[in-house]
Amino acid sequence: MVASGFQKIDFDFMIKKLSVKILAAIILLFCYCSSSYSQGNVLSEGEELVYVVSYGFIKLGEVKISLSGKKYIEGKEIYFSKATMKTYSGIPFVSLNSVFESEMIYENNRVYSRRFKAVEYKEDGILKIEYAFNYDSNFVHVIVTKDGRTDRDEKIKINQNVKFQDGLSLFYCARLDSYSEENFMIPVFMNEAETSVKYYFNSQKEETSASIFDDDIKTIRCNGNASFKGVFGLTGEFAGWFSDDEARIPIKSQMNVMIGSVTLELESYKRKNWH
Description:
mainly beta; YmcC-like fold; 15-stranded antiparallel beta sheet; about 10% helix; about 50% strand
């Protein structure tokens, strides 16, 4: 008998109802996690990004960066990237006509350089540079040739257990790192020597304009300092703005080069399911 004024409690019904709520919560959590951004989505085969380099109102040249493919070599996931850089004809300040290629190892949501090749077409000849990173033996095999003549063929010792970026893999490394608010000190091998770059990402989102878009785009800002001298004479402080989505595409950057401060701005792109 149940006392008057009280209802019988159906514990079985309550447990079933609670179970349904827990299951629903798990499903919602799974859906949320599935739709959240993943670092791995940065690397998209077939992606092609074209940037215009400007010095004030003067357009100096163009940079095209592409991720051509992926292979598994010796059990490792390898991505292949290529960049071409050219100044426009008639530019009095600088002259640049270069092709860079990078083989990048991808593991644990990070990339690092496996091989790097650079070809620079100069007025006095063609300069070729090749780096082959041998991490197990702690050296980089460097080959430098000019007009087919070998100027340097050397195995340069590197620090043990350090994974390096080349000038091109660094482009993807920073995009992958943009998911974190840490301060990064990235080992770089450039100009046939060990060096580094520092950068960090601002958690506060910014609206950034680019002529390719009708409206401003939400971005994440990166600030950094390069200890090396790179393409166009890049050195010192720089800033970049990455799209606040899973692609983390660099929209715009500002950097110091030999002629002063220049801006790189996205002019065109090819990428599946982006904008």
